[in-house]
Amino acid sequence: MPRPLWSGAISFGLVTIPVKLMSATEDRSVRFHQVHTEDLGRVRVRKYCEAEDREVSAAEIGKGYEVSKDTLVAVTDEELERMPLPTAKAIEIVAFVPAASIDPVRLSGDSYFLQYDGQVAAKPYVLIARALARNTKVAVAKLAWHGRERLVLLRVRDGALIAHVLKWDDEVRDPSELAPKDAKVTDSEIDEALQLIDSMTTDDISGYQDEYRKTLEAVLEAKAEGRQPPKPAEAAEEPGGKVVDLMAALQESVRKAQAARGEDAGDAEVHAMPTAKKKTARKTAGKAPVKKTAKKSAAAKKPARGQRGA
Hints:
The chain is of the alpha+beta class. It is 30% helix and 25% strand. The protein contains 7 helices and 11 strands. The protein has a 7-stranded mixed β-barrel with strand order 1-2-8-11-10-9-7. Helix 3 runs parallel beside helix 5. The radius of gyration is 32 Å and the shape is extended. Residues 276-310 have low confidence and may be disordered.
């Protein structure tokens, strides 16, 4: 486990549980340095003071809040730590809510494990962990950390408490203007979409991997060893804005999903919808040729019916 990032206590009514906060995730992304392309020399970012026009060290850099244009107020770390907040050294549980009521958009992506701090904290830690594990509720708490108060969600994972940082209400934008207003779908299309959801439902997503990172690491390894990077796979054909029959596309998707699970779903085809381009072509050809072709086709079919009747 990584080193603790914060230490304090969970405040649960009159129960206090000393805990340590540590990161629950790690960033495995491949990172690059900025370099001069001609000689691969590292490009550094230097910090300059505008007033003195000179480079300053990290020890000389502090925090400043812009009250108005050209007016800054200096704020020290000590002043931030002495702020009169009840959550400065405590994770104060303020409510318990159904887990399904938390909108995933409020999850910031930062997750932390809570480790009990000392033997005296073991029993109340296990108590709240098992209580949460026995119902569908999660705890919502406040925590002051890194110069701001945060809202966190507490839940249980494999017997350990884990905290997920939440966005405040005013940090989530209103998406109402983004939804299409005029698009219409039928009940049959919705039913088919539900069938597709059922056919793709799983209880385990642990098998998915970051294929981009794996491929990038293979490219970098080849370049470091002086070998040619792996050849790119043939890209799948892009949709290119084609209009397709939505119901047929849903049915084909269901068939493929069921086939991937070894289920026999029968055959299905996706048909392209008529486009403006095709209508224009018919107008250009004129009505007379279309009628002649139709008559000729009908005449050709009559003998065939007569033959079948004989």
